[in-house]
TrEMBL record:
All residue ranges annotated as the AB hydrolase-1 domain in the record: 34-143
GO molecular function terms noted in the UniProt entry: hydrolase activity
Protein name in the entry: Alpha/beta hydrolase
Organism of provenance: Rhodopseudomonas palustris
UniProt keyword annotations, A-Z: Hydrolase
Keyword Hydrolase tagged: yes
Gene3D superfamilies given in the database record: alpha/beta hydrolase
Length: 284
């Protein structure tokens, strides 16, 4: 049987972040309007591989996903062994804008899930002029802690397996077996303490409840897509954001969970296409 290659290009980008050199891994496919995709806590850009393989999406969009520092193929910066990784709102925002500038993206659509869904709310509030539109997947303004984060980084616990175990209940019950386990495998491969460090942003530093109503969709449209099976960002929490942000549009995706783009790509893309079409029509 002959080999088949996917239409995805992967490259390493050298970029200075926070006063230190970083080596960032970036994948992309397609051409047209840039669609910058942000992965979930503790995982990496592989979550968007199905999107990059969908010809109906890539015919109109340059789909881009990068692994944040410490994640996937993006190594931590030099000296990482002498510090504790801990993601903050300011770092996250700075990182995204720096990657956009390095890739010379002109008013991309930005789409993020989970922590990515939270940070896009920050971007909508603080940098709306930089984006054509913003899509939040599993995007709540806050989350109440429901487990002890210390279990995510202990010498007597297998970090990758416990991270995957924690998020396994967030995958929708109808997710195909192959995609369910690929989603969990990405978590099993995470570096020590990385998931815990991401959740510092998700559970503490990134709480935007007191400011989310200030988002102006007249400056940048906001679309919210959330799976119904999610106790980390419940449908009620997504709808609360929608109710707070005048002009936003929200859809609860039946049968999907916290990782819609990777756990059931076909179902998710069916929800995404109409949103992308609406964004395209508004920018003609």
């Amino acid at each position: 049987m002959s080999a088949r290659f996917e239409p995805i290009t992967g490259r390493y980008m050298h970029l200075e972040l926070f006063g230190r050199p970083h080596r960032i891994y970036v994948e992309e496919a397609g051409q047209g309007v840039p669609l910058l995709c942000l992965h979930t806590a503790g995982s990496d850009g592989r979550q968007y591989r199905a999107l990059m393989n969908d010809a109906t999406i890539t015919a109109q969009h340059r789909v881009i996903a990068f692994d944040m520092p410490w994640h996937g193929k993006s190594s931590p910066p030099e000296g990482w062994h002498d510090e504790e990784y801990q993601l903050t709102s300011q770092q996250y925002t700075t990182m995204i804008l720096a990657v956009m500038k390095a890739l010379q993206l002109d008013k991309p659509i930005v789409m993020g899930c989970s922590i990515g869904g939270r940070i896009v709310l920050h971007l909508a509030l603080e940098h709306p002029e930089e984006f054509r539109a913003i899509i939040g997947l599993q995007a709540g303004a806050h989350v109440d802690p429901y487990y002890d984060l210390n279990f995510l980084h202990r010498p007597d616990v297998h970090g990758g397996e416990v991270c995957a175990a924690i998020v396994s209940g967030l995958v929708g019950p109808n997710a195909p077996t192959k995609e369910r386990w690929e989603t969990l495998w990405h978590y099993m491969q995470g570096g020590p303490g990385v998931f815990k460090g991401d959740l510092y942003f998700y559970k503490l530093d990134g709480d935007i409840r007191d400011r989310v109503a200030q988002i102006d969709t007249g400056r940048c449209p906001l679309f919210l897509l959330s799976g119904e099976y999610d106790y980390s960002c419940t449908p009620e929490e997504t709808m609360a954001v929608a109710a707070s942000v005048k002009g936003s549009e929200a859809t609860i995706m039946k049968g999907l969970g916290h990782f819609p783009m990777s756990e059931d790509p076909e179902a998710f893309i069916g929800h995404l296409r109409p949103v992308l079409a609406k964004i395209a029509a508004a920018n003609k």
